[in-house]
Structure formats: C-alpha cells, structure tokens
Specification:
Structural class: alpha/beta
Number of helices: 19
Strand order of the largest sheet: 1-2-4-3-5-6
Shape: globular
Radius of gyration: 24 Å
Number of strands: 12
Length: 562
C-alpha cells in the first residue's frame, strides 16, 4: 500500500479537518459530522434540513455536498463503514428544527439500520424526521435474491434536487416527494479496471488481471456481478447505457440527465472519451440529453473506473438541477477563501446521569465481557482477512474498535447490576461500532438487558437478544449471517450448558461455508462465497469461546452466567 496518510485510524478525521479549514461555509462537529456553518439560522427559519452520509472513501461525497442548495449536514463513518447511530443523531439534533429533517440514505444494510434507528430515536425526542432510501444500482435485478439494489452515484442527483426544493422553502412532505421521484427516475451502473485499498486493511479488496474488468460493482471495493476481458471504451459505454436505458424504460424522445462519475482513479482523459461516447449513444437512440456532468462525484478511493447515472427528467426536475448551489463538489462557482481555524458551532450537550455505584470487576459478567474484548482485539486480523474474502474487510477493525472502547468506558458504566452494565455497553457499541455490526450488537445487548431486568434467567435473555438481531436485520437461519451461529447457540444454551452453546455455534458457522448469502454485502457475490465461513458467524464463535474460557474454571460461575 502506498498512500499519503499519517495514521490509518485518523484518515477520516484529518480529511474532514482539511475540508473545513479550506471551506468557511462548513463546520465540523464531533463524530465525523459536517454541517453548514449557518445551520442554526436555517433551523430558526424553519427550512427543511437534509442529512446524508455513509462510510468515508467516497469523497467528495458526502461532505462535499454540504452547502446552500444541497445538504445541511453529512455524516462520515470510517472508510467504507456506515456511521454509528449516535453520529447520525448528532447531525439530526444539530440541524433539526420546526421544518423537520429528511435523511437521504443509500441502500446498504448498515446505512439503513443506523440512519433508521437514529430517526426512530430522534422522533421520540420530538423531531420530525423522514427518510428515503436510494437504490439506483441497475446491475442488480430489482427482485433479485440479494440484499437489494445498492445506492450509487445517482444519490448525488437526489441531493441536488431535494436540496433545491428545501432551499425554495417547500415543506418536509413536498421535499420528500421530490426526492423520492428523483430516486425512482435514476439508474446507475459502473465498471472497474482496478481495485482499491482501504488504508486500515493495507491491501486491495479484490484482484483484477491486467486484461480484466469488473462489471456492476458497488462503491466499497467489493467485486461486481461479472468479470470479463477489457474492451474498447465505446463498447463498454454502450453496454452500460443500454442497461440503464432498458432498466428505466427510456425511449426515443424521452428527456434525460447524465452523470459521468469517476470512481477515483480514472484519468480525466478517459473521462472525456467516456463522455463523448455517452452523448453520441444517446443521440443515436433519439434520447434528448438535457443536462450532463462529468467528474468525481462519488468515488471508491483510488479505484480506476467509472459509473454512469441516467435520470429521466421533466421541467420541474431541471429547475431543481439548475438551481444555484454553493458546495465544494457540485460543478458551480464556490467561495475560495481560506479559513484560519476550524469553526465549531455550539451544540447542546446531552445530559447523562452517571451512577455512583462502581462496577464489580470481579463479577462473572465483567470477567466474561473483558475476555470477549481481549479476544476480539487479538482476532482483528483474522476477521479482517476473512471479511475481505466475502465482504469489504471492515469487520475485524469494527469489532476490535468496539472492544477497546468498552474496556476504556468501564469506569463510566453503572454498576447497580448486570442489566445496567449491559445498557452502558450497548451505548458504547452503538456509538463506536459502525457498519451493520454496531446496531445489531447494540440491539441484542439492549434486549438482553431488558429481559434480565424482567427477572428472566440468562438463557432466556440470550435468546431474546438473538431475536432482536433477527427482527432488526430481517435475517434468519440459512441466510449466511451471524444468526447461523447465534440461533443454534441460543437453543443449545436453553437445553444445556455453555459448552453446548459454543459447540452449536461452531457447527452453525462451519455450515455457512456451503450457503449462498442472502443478506449483507456477501449477497452480491453469488457462489464466490462458497467454501468460506461467514465472518459474522465466526466472530460469534470467538466471543462464545472467550466467555466459556473465562467462566469454565468454576462450575458455580458457569451457572451464574447461565
């Protein structure tokens, strides 16, 4: 890996600081949240706030679209990792006011879960929050046997249209309607000539031969739906546009807007060649090209490749696309003055009641928690390597980060009882662990805590926690997820001992090697996942083994944890 970075763990923070230092129209809050510097005035004026975001690595998205005429706030997670629920909440609380908040979310499981849970929490606090999900990936069938169409570069056009509607003073319902109309009109498909390297991973997420290209890939460096030989640029563009035209049912005489997007490492020369053929192809089909933009809009780090987005448009949408905007990334004039310091607007701090009862570090619960944390930190590379084979390689990093945070937050946990400690741990997990894992583990721990508080024993509470994951994530046994280990483990714990649960989890995990994924990013890889166990299920085994090891010396302690 050859990158101009300092500490791989600090790339997102340092990048956002650089954006803010050179753009006085935006400000940086905690948790990777970038807001319009005038967001407080907008909130008082009752203007609808737009919040979007996702994992970093897609720059200039999403912070690059914060400004008049587009987003009010953007939330950046770690590279290719969804931001945490708490980070999204920080953004919503900062910009949410009488006009309400619209969340614009790309269709990835982690993004939907984290933004969705944040919206639910914000509503309980009295904020009017709506959410739309953009799924413009034309490479995948709309009713395919996978986790659904992904959100790609077409999301930027949704930002532009919704942003103009909000700037025009429309109410939340109308802004949401225009955003949904835009999202439904757009189709996107990409092609890659090379892979990209996540700084923390240190090696490419996929390998392409010198004469190979990857069709229909997402924006996280994961493999696409098909691999083939390199072809002339015109043939590649014709193939992509034919797919987009068919997907949206576009015919001769229809009006469209085109976005030619650099995935990160495509030279400007080649973008010009792509744009030339795209314009020519549409003209040959009798399709009226009303607007076109060429540049880097939503990238995948340094990946050499491009995506094309095609949107059917009408006069109303063109008015929104032509509306003035002042952001870093949208092709328009923007302020070039240099800020002398990072402007950090004041934000109301959440008041948290802290118990004076200290946690009992010798308790069976804490010994089990500590053992899990130590084991997850040690297993970071193992889980990273495994996840790179079938996903985007962030699982080991995410779980190790969460484990370190739990150990660090130990003095803050309410030691009144096991349920109280678990509530504190759930808060740490949801704040620190992004992607899909964060909200799922947080939901599980919260449900366990609530069940224990109701007087139920550990086996019942553990099974309830597993049910919470199934309900929130929508998966079940056989979908090749962590539930393939958790569900049999919970059943075994109800019938017998902790050792039985560990054994059942191991068997369930091994069986995932023969299952085609139906949930998560692995669902896009088809039979490429066969022969490799699910990383999430493997992580469950690691944790259960750690608990068993910590409690096995004393039968009384084993009984207590059960």
């Amino acid at each position: 890996m050859k990158k101009l970075v300092n500490d791989p763990a600090e790339v997102v923070s340092e990048m956002l600081q650089g954006f803010v230092l050179t753009n006085p129209g935006i400000a940086l809050l905690d948790d990777g949240v970038v807001v319009r510097a005038d967001h407080a005035a907008l909130r008082l004026a009752g203007q609808v706030a737009l919040v979007s975001g996702g994992g970093a690595g897609h720059e200039p998205a999403h912070a690059g679209y914060v400004g008049p005429g587009m987003l009010t706030a953007a939330v950046a997670g770690d590279v290719f990792t969804s931001p945490s629920v708490d980070a999204v909440l920080t953004a919503v609380r900062a910009v949410g006011g009488p006009g309400g908040v619209l969340l614009i979310v790309k269709n990835y499981t982690g993004d939907r879960l984290n933004f969705g849970l944040a919206a639910e929490i914000a509503r309980t606090e009295g904020l009017d929050v709506e959410m739309i999900v953009v799924a413009d990936d034309a490479a995948l069938a709309a009713d395919g046997n996978n986790a659904g169409r992904r959100g790609l570069a077409g999301t930027v056009l949704v930002h532009k249209i919704a942003g103009a509607a909000a700037e025009a003073g429309l109410p939340l319902a109308a802004v949401k309607q225009e955003a949904m109309k835009a999202a439904e009109s757009i189709a996107t498909m990409g092609v890659a000539l090379s892979a990209c390297t996540v700084p923390a991973a240190g090696k490419p997420g996929l390998e392409l031969g010198a004469d190979e290209i990857e069709w229909g890939l997402g924006i996280h460096g994961e493999p696409g739906v098909e691999r083939g030989g390199i072809r002339p640029a015109d043939e590649v563009i014709d193939t992509l546009l034919a797919r987009l035209v068919a997907d949206r049912g576009i015919n001769a005489g229809d009006r469209v807007a085109l976005l030619v997007n650099n995935l990160g490492g495509m030279p400007t020369m080649e973008l010009g060649i792509i744009a030339r053929r795209a314009v020519t192809f549409l003209a040959e089909q009798g399709i009226t090209l009303e607007r076109a933009w060429v540049g880097s809009f939503l990238t995948a780090l340094e990946m050499a490749g491009c995506s094309l987005s095609l949107a059917r448009v009408d006069d109303e949408m063109l008015t929104r696309l032509d509306a003035p905007t002042q952001t870093i990334a949208w092709p328009a004039a923007h302020v070039g003055r240099v800020a002398r310091e990072i402007a950090t607007p004041r934000q109301d701090q959440e008041i948290v009641a802290v118990s004076t009862i200290q946690l009992d570090e010798s308790s069976s619960l804490w010994r089990a928690v500590e053992a899990v944390c130590v084991r997850l930190i040690a297993a970071e590379q193992e889980l990273t390597d495994l996840d790179q084979l079938v996903g985007d390689g962030d699982l080991g990093l995410s779980l190790a980060r969460g484990a370190r945070a739990i150990l660090n937050d130990k003095p803050q946990y309410d030691g009144t009882g096991g349920a109280s400690v678990l509530r504190g741990i759930a808060g740490t997990v949801r704040r620190v662990v992004g992607g899909t894992s964060g909200p799922l583990y947080a939901a599980m721990i919260l449900r366990i805590s609530a069940t224990l508080s109701a007087g139920e024993p550990w086996p019942v509470a553990f099974e309830a926690g597993v049910d919470a994951i199934a309900e929130l994530g929508g998966a079940r046994t056989g979908d090749r997820t962590m539930l393939d280990a958790l569900i049999p483990a919970a059943a075994a714990l109800r019938r017998g001992a902790l050792a039985d649960a560990v054994a059942a989890a191991r068997v369930g995990t091994e069986e995932t090697a023969d299952i085609l994924a139906l949930r998560g990013r692995s669902s896009y890889l088809g039979d490429r996942v066969l022969g490799v166990v699910d990383p999430g299920a493997r992580a469950v085994v690691i944790q259960l083994e750690a608990i068993h090891s910590a409690l096995e010396p004393s039968p009384a302690q084993v009984s207590a944890i059960r």
